[in-house]
Design a protein that fits this description.
Blueprint: E1 3-7, H1 15-22, E2 26-29, E3 43-48, E4 51-56, H2 76-88, H3 95-106, H4 113-128, E5 133-136, H5 146-156, E6 161-165, H6 174-179, E7 183-189, H7 209-215, H8 218-227, E8 229-233
Parallel strand pairs: 1-2, 1-6, 2-5, 6-7
Antiparallel strand pairs: 3-4, 7-8
Helix pairs in contact: 3-4
């Protein structure tokens, strides 16, 4: 069985994104779809002493560009992001990993938003021990839109099972996937508190997974992501609890 998941590249993605990649054999970065302004393709949140804060990568935004075609506007954001992260997570258990691995990656010259986000996400997945093969949709020449595109890409990487987020449930049909010899499974991630910096502010959910990776050890972070992952067989349509 070959389990495949497909998702648009995101900047410093949150836990459910990484959970999906960790649960599959092949992960496809969907960099061929339209750039989404004000989404999370070029931004995400971290927890500071003053509460959640957006870290945004400035881009030359246009709805006519795909994520792979979207260019970064300038490099001044790098210094600001590094300073915010280092200040906010001073004393965190895994800050050394950030300084040794992720900070140099952020400081590289990136040809596009997709190149930046994919490089960063690869480091997050490596930290969690993800073993999936990773490929860009732009390397596969997928055709169609929405369900048709997903099935085409999944077929091209040899999928026998497709792992989907719940957001796609409204337009995906298990029967359509089955006709292509692909089983359809949905995945969701159950949020659970963990020890964060700035405890007086209380636990803050829906942050970048960087918060988890900095606050916990490598082993603890991996276990936390895996333990919160829930699968749904489309033959039942009932989520586990």
């Amino acid at each position: 069985m070959t389990v495949v998941a497909i998702h648009q590249p995101q900047y410093l993605p949150w836990q459910p994104y990484l959970a999906k990649a960790m649960a599959c054999d092949v992960f496809v970065y969907l960099d061929t779809v339209q750039f989404q302004k004000d989404g999370v393709q070029n931004r995400n949140m971290v927890k500071t002493a003053n509460g959640p804060r957006w870290l945004t990568v400035p881009v030359h935004a246009s709805l006519k560009y795909t994520i792979a075609e979207t260019q970064l506007a300038d490099a001044r954001w790098v210094r600001k992001h590094l300073a915010t992260i280092r200040q906010s997570y001073r004393g965190a258990p895994s800050l050394d990993w950030f300084d040794e691995v992720l900070a140099p990656c952020l400081s590289l010259a990136h040809a596009s938003l997709a190149e930046l986000t994919i490089r960063v996400t690869d480091h997050l997945l490596d930290r969690l021990g993800a073993r999936c093969r990773r490929i860009r949709a732009s390397e596969l020449s997928g055709v169609g839109t929405r369900e048709e595109l997903v099935i085409d890409l999944a077929r091209k990487v040899g999928a026998t099972r497709y792992l989907s987020g719940l957001g796609a449930m409204s337009y995906q049909s298990p029967a359509t996937f089955a006709r292509e010899g692909i089983a359809l499974t949905y995945i969701r991630h159950r949020s659970r508190p963990y020890l964060q910096r700035h405890a007086s502010l209380g636990f803050v959910d829906e942050l970048s997974a960087l918060d988890l990776l900095l606050n916990l050890s490598q082993t603890e972070a991996r276990a936390h992501v895996e333990d919160g992952t829930i699968f749904e067989d489309t033959t039942t349509r009932e989520l586990g609890t």
